[in-house]
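von Willebrand factor type A domain protein, pasting as requested.
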Amino acid sequence: MKRTAPSRRRRGAMLVLIAVMLLGFMVAVAFSVDVAQMHLSRTELRTATDAAAKAAAATLSDTLDRNQAVQRGQQIAAANSVNGDPLVIPAGDFQFGRSQEQNGGRYAFTADQVPLNSVRVLGRRTADSPSGAVPLFFGNILGVSSFEPVANATATYIERDVVLVVDRSGSMAGRKFADLSNAINVFVNTLNNTPVDERVGLASYNDRASEDVQLTANLAEITAAMGAMRVGGFTSISRGMSAGQSIMLSGRSPDFVERTMVVMTDGRHNRGPEPRIVANQLAADNVTIHTITFGGNADLARMREVATIGGGNHYHADNGLQLEQIYREIALTLSTMITE
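Structure tokens follow.
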């Protein structure tokens, strides 16, 4: 009997091994292609969902209209492709609510909580979504024909209506009122450099109060009113706060904006109701109250109490430079932000 040569047997075994290796290589290539496609699709979905959330939140801020916010978010989503197809986001995948900063700087979203300041968007390329699942090139080889990525994005706008309440009693005459005017200019200039136009109103008081500027995005009106103001008379902080309250309540709906009042005085309340009475009314209307005392004769204890009732901060300035720094700091905390 003639035997097969060992070299031929080895060559046959090598061919089988090469065939197996080629098959494994092809499977690895197919797997790599699909994995790359999955990563790309996930990134594109994340980008499109983020863009839709930001657009919806910006529109909500501008229009205070949920339907318009959804429509704008859908337009921006469709302008972004995922695996070559426009991303279609149903209206039901837009959720409105409120985000609040937690310890550590993170924001927690609560659906349907007012005032609304956030839009959460669910971006999907799943089998039951309008855009469908992402088909894989070689999925059938691996037994998986499609990929179903999901992304969530929350965009937050913190809009505020702000009313400044300033003291124009007789004790503010001269250098003090000039320092206050400079500090208000700093406040206005700081807000003008923030991304979104906050609306600001101005009330002033001595023993009587006036509504000097209604809420406006034209902050030049604030500085103009300060320039036209005259000082003199006694001090009724509560009447000034009531005038500010009237301005605030004529502004935008509290369902869509944060409300903040900044009350400044250099003296002691000596006319009208107790300021804490008005502070409680403002707090019931969800108005945050910051207070500023200026100079050595100001009633720090009473103004601290007002700030505590209003959930805000109390600041004290001994001189004009410190007063400017305080108004700048407050303006920076009021700026509108987008968080995800």
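Note for the archive: Residues 160-334 form a domain with the Rossmann fold fold (CATH 3.40.50.410).
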